[in-house]
From TrEMBL:
Cofactor(s) required for function per UniProt: [4Fe-4S] cluster; tungstopterin
Organism this protein belongs to: Lentimicrobium saccharophilum
Listed GO MF terms: 4 iron, 4 sulfur cluster binding; electron transfer activity; metal ion binding; oxidoreductase activity, acting on the aldehyde or oxo group of donors, iron-sulfur protein as acceptor
Name used for this protein in its record: Aldehyde:ferredoxin oxidoreductase
Phylogenetic lineage: Bacteria, Pseudomonadati, Bacteroidota, Bacteroidia, Bacteroidales
Keyword RNA-binding in record: no
Family per similarity comment: Belongs to the AOR/FOR family.
Amino acid sequence: MDLTVLKDSLRLIKEYRYSWAPIEKGYNNRTVYVNVGTHDILEKPVTPQMKEKFIGGKGFGLRLLWDATTPTTRWNDPDNEIVIGMGPICGITQYSGTGKSLVVTISPQTDIVIDSNVGGYFGPFLKFCGFDALELQGKSEKDLVILFDETREVIEIYETIDLPGDSHLLAEKLTEIFAEEESGRKNVSVVSAGTAAEHSLIGMLNFSFFDSKRKVVRLKQAGRGGIGTVFRDKGILALVAKAKGVKGNLNNVVDLDAIMERGRRFNREMRELDDKQCEMRSKGTAHLTNVMNDYDLLPTNNFKFGSHPDAIKIHSEVYKERFTQGVPDGCWIGCNMSCAKGVDNYELRSGPYKGSKVIVDGPEYETASSLGSIAGIFNPDFTIEGNFYCDTYGICTISWGTILGFVMECYEAGVLNDERTGGLKLNFGNADDAMELLHQVARGEGFGKIAGLGVRKMKEMFIANGWGDPQFLQDIGMENKGLEYSQYISKESLAQQGGYAMTNKGPQHDEAWLIFMDMVNNQIPTFENKAEALHYFPMFRTWFGLQGLCKLPWNDVEPESNALSGEPAKVPEHVDNYVTIYNAVTGNNIDKHEIIRQSERVYNFQRIFNIRRGYGLRKHDAQPYRAAGPVTAEEYLSRQERYDKQLSELQGLDPSKMTLEEKMAATRKYREDRYEQLLDAVYFRRGWNSNGVPKIEHLKKIGMDLPELIEVVAPLQ
């Protein structure tokens, strides 16, 4: 399809002209609202209170979504919104990891707010176009492309005709159309969801960036919770942001020299220390595959086990050989971490693009597990190909892997059979049928339609059909709040169990990754210690999402002296970098403690948002038992020495005088009780009551005693 024909596939139906103005200290001081049903476009002012209480990024998204919806708004109601926010630091180029966007919506999987961070260039480009956040509301009967064009100071809505539906092609074609000439492709970014987002609840969004070295369009993902499903339900085919270009100080920061100095310091650490530490520049997050296996933390066979003899086949060195080396693999300009690795010229072996040679963005660690070990598959070609198809179809790889593990265990346990799967033999290790199931999701066919519902809804369906023991299905279905678990074994880390199941959105590791602090290094042995960690780290990590920052530069390379610092897990020198950068951007004068207070306000707001929707209480922080301990005899026996020793040392029991069933029951009772004690300790530390509801006095203390919040929590005090 040539460019002329491509342009003919778009029909302009709405044009909105606005007046561009320079960013001031990291803010445009306005957001933009687009209703895709009525085609209304509005500019909204950002008030001083909004900046004080909600900061930016996810905070702006939550505030705008709250105002736009009611407690009964559902994910597929026209009133539901997708909000994309950036944050004041987003878009600077002098420090690594400053190009993140935060996307929020009411999730089709959880019925509460989902938030997902994403790289790529759309967020910074939208900010350069003149807006701190974008609200998308309404529904369109026809597929739309919405353009934000800084060069012409215009927002345009197009109806589409005969554009490709999958993201790798759509992003490429729209980049060609709106760049107009090849040199302009680096200034265009596209947001899209592929065909699977139309047939499942686990659809995700792809944010593109043009790789100037490779001369190809690449994709980064806002993966969790079905945001892409909402996107396609609204009739949005794509968003496009077109910027004039990127130069040194578009954020008009207060003290550029201070930011540059911290950037040089971090870049020196990357040059000198990365190869000794995490090898991010050569392996990306895939460096974790063998580390997790070594510590019995690599999810295998639906989180039954944490390691496997065949894991050597997916060792990080294997992926290093596949990744193109020596290219600046950053998903935003100026990021020296270069962790967005890619497999170039990969020839696909299955599906609609069989025989095509493509670039595959990843796999990252989460995908190496979710499209590999969790399904008992230790074949990097399966993982790489699955990675490509999940991306272009618009499927969250984390959710898909956890779904696949659940389905395979159900198949092996007799909950599913060939008749129920439509002939697919979904036993652990069956890569061919696993790949076909993925293609079925994209086509909206066969058992793929059921798998695309996610673990929670499959559990409910299987139980309703009488296909398996309800307790067994609840125990092995690795979801909390309706969201599938991400890819770490938490059985031996009570703190990580809390770091998953106590999250506001569901079990994603971006709130708190405490396994090494807790399990390996034993730095937080008491409930009080764990509660303090489960207060500090979720709050600190929330701050990245308020600012438009990536978390990886914080602790995936550490200063050489970090181990000698008073709190090495916090990487205090890097925390100081962020304090300096925030102050240098905004002209404010915060300290490291105010980072936590800023985040507390937004974190508690999100908790109350969940409560407003009928969730957000203690019962919703319950975890599936497999997150805490061995569900099956096979699991117990695989680590019998460990579990027997714990019965003796922790409970004072004599395992030699107990049956296997008695040992498993005692282990379960102990571990479930420990988790309940952890809930009590964490809620107390966070200023919540025993039911997980923020106390009014705590809201007053942190400056979030807004009338609309008090109205929600007052009856639950």
